[in-house]
Design goal:
Blueprint lengths: L16 E4 L10 E4 L6 H14 L4 E6 L6 E6 L29
Antiparallel strand pairs: 1-2, 2-3, 3-4
The structure holds zinc ion.
Amino acid sequence: MTQEQGPVCPHCNENLQPFELPDNTGWETGFQLACFNDECPYFVRGWEHMQEKYAVKASYRYRVDPTSGKASPLAVWSTDAIKDRILDANVSADSDDTPDDGSSS
Ligand SMILES: [Zn+2]
């Protein structure tokens, strides 16, 4: 079984995961890629950085816009933030005979 190598986080080498964007963000794409590894050094350092600089309990994750390929920080307010928006990347792995899949965004 060959596994397609997707983009990985340059900070921790974990696979980036697609997540759905909230509405009204003005982004052209419906999803973006981010590193959701809680032990990612980029994410871990973010807590200290935000606390020292802005005295807020927040951090950011490594995020990539798939259309432009540009990386930018994704601000999060907890380790679980945005995680409920992660899209199931395995959904296309074993597609069965689902009768109706005509839903579009
Ligand atoms: Zn990472």
